[in-house]
Amino acid sequence: MQKIERIPQMETGHENKWQYYIYDALIAVAGSLIVTGLIYFSHLYPHISDIVIIHLILIMTLAIWRSRYAAIVAAITAFLSFDYFLVPPLYTLTIADPVQWVALFIFLFTAIVTSWLAGAVRQSAEEARKNAHELRILYELMRVCNNTNNLDEQLDIIVLSTLRVFSSLGITECVLLMPDQAGKLRVRADAPIRVDEFQPTSEEMGHAAQVYRSGKHTTIKDVNVPHSQVHYIPLKSDSHVFCVLYLRVLNGVSWLENEEGLNSALRNAYPPAEFFRTYLDQISSLIERSFLREKLAS
């Protein structure tokens, strides 16, 4: 168990994007107004005609620390507040001198381009960090599984690791269902660790058997547990299904949909979907290899 705890968890990211955007906008507007206020009360303009450039420091900081969105909002706020409070005629958005119009629009263009470039650098660095984090998850999973040749131990490691990695994204239960010698699905491993072995209902076993035969991902809403869904995911090699992965998810997960969605639109819209597909391929490969090793040993 201590070895499994070394496997990193998936990062949750920004669950409420609207809240995140509103927070960014408030920081950007407040920051720009504070900078303009300091210039206004210290009477630096028009004594220092290029003092508006000081806004670029704030804009670049927001682009690197927060997002390009925050930086662009800060640039527009700086443009409007500087015009309103500092450029004659004061307290209006009109400008008497056309030269001031040109100067402010050059500032706005420069600020937006700068924020976009700085944000692109930040996004590239964040993407590289995320990829490194995901690679570490797969590496640690393989390392822990390779510490034992026992099939049951490896299956326990896989379900416990799956629950640990994706628990931050809503998964609360993970079960592997495999056929016995008679071809009937049985529970071979389950997580979380509990006193009694996990016992699926006859209805759940029926859904799992259907997924095992069809090889298609199926999602069922659990009426007994509010805001809960059960995903039945076939794990297969080529077209051969060798087990079914049972995942219970709370509150619904937009990136955990059917297999077709994972392979197309959702992979772009929801970044965890692409890694989840890769993770499923990895555990399928591990289970298939363990099956082959067990057959050769017997």
TrEMBL record:
**Membrane-spanning residues:** 21-41, 47-65, 70-87, 99-121
Keyword Transmembrane helix present in the record's keywords: the answer is yes
Domain of life the protein comes from: Bacteria
**GO MF term (any one):** phosphorelay sensor kinase activity
Q: Which cellular compartments is it found in? A: Membrane
Task: List the signal peptide residues.
Answer: none
Q: Does the keyword Secreted apply?
A: no
**Topology class, membrane:** Multi-pass membrane protein
Q: Where is the Sensor protein KdpD transmembrane domain?
A: 26-130
> Can you quote a single GO CC term?
plasma membrane
Q: What is its main location?
A: membrane
Keywords of the record, alphabetical order, are: ATP-binding, Kinase, Membrane, Nucleotide-binding, Phosphoprotein, Transferase, Transmembrane, Transmembrane helix, Two-component regulatory system
Annotated PANTHER family:
SENSOR PROTEIN KDPD
What is the protein named? Answer: Sensor protein KdpD transmembrane domain-containing protein
What is the originating organism of this protein?
Dictyobacter aurantiacus
